[in-house]
Amino acid sequence: MKEPIFLQPVLQTKIWGGRKLATEFGMSLPNDTIGESWSISAHPNGVSTVVAPAKYQGVGLDELYRQYPELFGGEQLTEFPLLIKILDAAEDLSVQVHPNDIYAREHEGELGKTECWYVISAEPGAKIVYGHNAQTPEEFANLVQKGEWSALLREVPVKAGDFFYVPYGTIHAIGAGIVILETQQNSDTTYRVYDYDRTDDSGQPRPLHIQQSIDVTMFPHQDPELTISELNVEGNKVTHYLTNEYFSVYKWAIKDEATITLKAPYSLATVIAGAGKLKIEDKEHDLQLADSFILPSEVREVELIGELTLIVSNPE
To answer: Would residue 192 show up in a list of annotated catalytic residues for this protein?
Structure first.
């Protein structure tokens, strides 16, 4: 099939969410605390469904992946490997960490969670927590017990266009005023270290996971090395941010027209700015802000027309 597969996102209410998915992306929100759009997801906690083409309309991505392996290169893993989100942090997210595959399989029954962030927008003064200063698990536990967060946590200022790689074991938190696109493994396991003493709707503190966090955190913290490269494609810019054992991530910044050759078995794409058209052979498809779609395995070349920016990924 040489057509894109457009998906309906799943909106997730979060204690820290807001309304920017409506004001910046035009989404219709059910409440004022939507923190995440699971734009391409086969996770049981929020499965995206097919909008088009009509042949697959209404089918969940999990079922699509199981029933039509030819769309995904024919090599089926146990589960769809990736999850693509747009996050609106109206307030600070909890300080957290994610496990690797081995720990997550043993303790949670799912994949681990390595992720990365492309910063779509950031209010002045916005920052993230990225890493920690403890040299050992014992020092980490001591600082947590004493609540010495300023001594423990590393803060980094952010701006629109920044990219951060967050491998499993990395202490992190997205700060208030930031909207990101997140590419991650297909997992919903998060271990909270600190949550600012917030309470849930029933007035109870949200649970923390101190021992699990100590189990899976990297000691000492090390910033991953990134080699970001840019390719000029007919006057347009394709940026390669990252390739690891789970995924590759790119930005396609289109100013007018560009023809792009696809090498991966399939690709996942989300429009994060602008609008335009996607042309595959002789057929054109409209692309609007926040549209998310899969380019299946038979699609080997696409033409982008318009002024728009997409974040594109593929599994490794």
So the answer is: yes
Within 10 angstroms of residue 18's Cβ, the number of other Cβ atoms is 20
What per-residue string of b and e applies to 71-89 under the rule 16 or more CB within 10 Å gives b?
bbeeeeeeebbbbbbbbbb
- What is the per-residue pLDDT across 23-32, written as a single tens digit (0 to 9) for each? 999 999 999 9
Q: What is the Cα–Cα distance from 303 to 76, expressed in whole angstroms?
A: 28
Q: Residue 142 in contact with residue 93, Cβ under 8 Å? A: no
Type of residue found at 9: P
303 with 257: CB under 8 angstroms?
yes
Nearest to 310 by CA among 234, 226, 236, 232: 236
Query: Which is catalytic among the residues 192, 198, 206, 300?
Result: 192
| Cα–Cα distance for residue pair 2/295, rounded to 1 Å | 8
- Cβ–Cβ under 8 Å, residues 266 and 300: no
Task: Name which of 94, 157, 149, 133 is nearest 223 in CA terms.
Answer: 133
* pLDDT beyond 90 at 75: no
Residues 6 or more apart whose CB falls under 8 angstroms from that of 251 comprise 118, 237, 238, 239, 241, 309, 310, 311, 312
Rounded to two decimals, what is the model's pTM?
A: 0.96
